[in-house]
Design goal:
With about 180 residues, the protein is an alpha+beta fold. The chain has five helices and twelve strands. The longest helix is centred in the middle third of the chain and has 15 residues. The radius of gyration is 25 Å and the shape is rod-shaped.
C-alpha cells in the first residue's frame, strides 16, 4: 500500500480533488473524471453584497474557470515530489489521513478590479456638510457618505473566488463623515 501506485503519473492512494477520490488514476483519467462531473460545476453567477445593494455578475464576465489541469497536477505531485523518504511520508499520510486537494480556479485580475471599481461607483456617496440658512433661520443636518477600501474589497473577492460555491460575498462599507 505504501508504494502503490509507484509511477509518478499515477495519483497516490488516499488523494481526492474537490472531494472526489482520484487515487490510482493517471493525470488524464483524473481530469476526464473531474471535467465530466456536473456536481463540481461552479455556479454561473457571483453574488456581491455591498451595504444594502446586491450585485449579480456572471462568472464568465470576469474570466472565472476551474483549472482541472492545475488541480490534477497538484494531486499527482502529492507523494511524488520530495525524494524517496519525503515521498514515502507523503504516501503514508495520504493513505492514513487522506488528502483533499481543492479545485484550482482562475479569473482575469483586471476584470475583477474593474468590477470592484464599478461597484464602488454605485455604493460610494460623498458626505454632505451641515448648512445654515440665515435668511430663513434653519439648519440642514449633515449626511454621512459611504465607500469602501478597494484593496480590502479586492482581497475579499479574490479569497471568495478561490473556493467559490455560490454564497454571497460581503464587501464592508465604510461610513465617511462630513467635515462639519
Amino acid at each position: 500500500v505504501l508504494f502503490y501506485p509507484s509511477a509518478k503519473n499515477v495519483i497516490a492512494y488516499g488523494v481526492s480533488i474537490g472531494g472526489v477520490p482520484v487515487q490510482g488514476l493517471s493525470r488524464g483519467e483524473a481530469k476526464t473524471l473531474l471535467s465530466g462531473m456536473k456536481e463540481l460545476a461552479p455556479p454561473e453567477h457571483l453574488i456581491i453584497k455591498a451595504g444594502d445593494r446586491t450585485f449579480t455578475v456572471a462568472l464568465s464576465e470576469i474570466g472565472y474557470i476551474q483549472d482541472f489541469d492545475a488541480s490534477v497536477r497538484n494531486a499527482a505531485l502529492f507523494g511524488n515530489n520530495r525524494g524517496l523518504i519525503g515521498n514515502l511520508g507523503g504516501r503514508i499520510s495520504s493513505a492514513v489521513f487522506h488528502k483533499n486537494i481543492p479545485i484550482a480556479t482562475k479569473y482575469d485580475a483586471k476584470k475583477l478590479a474593474l468590477l470592484a471599481y464599478a461597484i464602488e461607483s454605485k455604493v460610494s456617496k460623498k458626505p454632505v456638510d451641515a448648512s445654515i440658512n440665515w435668511e430663513k433661520p434653519s439648519v440642514t443636518p449633515h449626511i454621512n457618505g459611504s465607500g469602501f477600501d478597494k484593496k480590502a474589497a479586492l482581497a475579499s473577492l479574490r479569497n471568495a473566488l478561490s473556493l467559490y460555491k455560490g454564497e454571497a460575498v460581503e464587501l464592508r462599507i465604510i461610513t465617511i463623515p462630513p467635515k462639519i
